[in-house]
Fold this protein.
Amino acid sequence: MEHQSVTQTKLVVTAALGIALVFICTAFVNVRLPFAANGGLIHLGNVPLFIMAILYGRNLGALAGGLGMALFDVMGGWLLWAPFTLVIVGLMGYVVGAICEKHRSSAAYALALAAACLIKVVGYYGAEWIIYGNWLAPMTSIPGNLVQIGVAAGVVLPVVGKLRKHVPVFTLERSPK
């Protein structure tokens, strides 16, 4: 019984830490884009999101990413974006984690981040189309989204292999019942 309690506590603490790191890196390490039609933001919140998803799997990746960035939207004055962010970024974390749970290699990590990039570009394009009622304006956000994922990949890919050797792996699925 004690082992289960410790494992559940570790999961809750790890999820909370992931959510907090995604929020902090989104809120405080960012640059607003002057050329995007509707604002736009490049931030480093994807770095802890991807690290959480690769190390701890799809569910913790989805929680950390979706909740951390949606919390930023709510707290940062982007309230209209919060539901879209919750779904889009949650899906990014889920897909990265799902790919990396099955395949543990640098190629799999790169493929997972490419999938996340596609989800981000398509998801936010659709969100902007819905919010602004214009299919052309969202095109200006695509370069920023590509840069954001590219920078995150440039940080995550070199370090995650080393982290994997030193971080104990546990996921929501593997916790004792």
